[in-house]
Write a structure and sequence with these properties.
Structural class: mainly alpha
Shape: globular
Number of strands: 0
Number of helices: 5
Largest sheet: none
Number of domains: 1
Strand content: under 5%
Order of helices and strands: HHHHH
Length: 130
Amino acid sequence: MKWLFRKRKEREIHTVETMIRMYCRAKHHTKGTLCESCAEVFSYATMKYNRCVFGEQKPVCTVCPVHCYNKDMRERIRVIMRFAGPRMILHHPVMAIDHLILQRWSRKNMPVFLKRVKKKKGTGMRQKIA
């Protein structure tokens, strides 16, 4: 429950870690530690979260306008989330509710995120001189 008082970024990373641990425990029969494959997914997810263009006020990845995961990792994390998501309500209800609230907030603020993406695309690009 201490995680609830952490910064949002730390809470999101902890939520992803919990989901990956639930998946790994059920599918790969590990106890306490992550298997090599799941550790790779967690490491990749943490790296991408820390490099997010939206910074601390980022949307949840399911509604994000920028897809920063490569195709293989996106599919792997989606499988993990589909497995662990429904089980989070039973095993970690506060964490699951926090994530659902954040998802709703992300959808509500989508126009703000889209404006930021358009601004980022417009800067740094060379324009052709006619």
